Amino acid sequence: MATQSPMRLEIAVPPEARAGDSVSIVLRLVNDGSVPVDVPLQGRPVAFDVSVTRPDESLVWRRLEGEVVTAILQLRSVPAGDTLVFQANWDQRDAAGLPVPPGEYLVTGSVPSDPPKAFEAGPVKLWIRP
Description:
Immunoglobulin-like; three-stranded antiparallel sheet; globular; mainly beta
């Protein structure tokens, strides 16, 4: 029987932001276990993705859209109780570069690991106010 990984991904997004302000999005890959875990991660630097959608799940913006992620696999040892942190900023523009209107959005994050596995978190709500 396979054991469950002690690794989990958390996402931190402010509950609201003023229209036009940059939105800070933080992903934390946490080792909840009692021993170090070797985690295979893709890319150099480590690739991580953030997606912003509307409540109907239509894609508004994706951090890695159009990016080429190298197939390089690196092994990172995460000590027990420790965390790897990844940060992105969303400028409240859609994939075409246009400002998004105020309203509700959903934010998800992922950190690709040994294919086809990925650590995922979210969605969490983000309200863009005028």
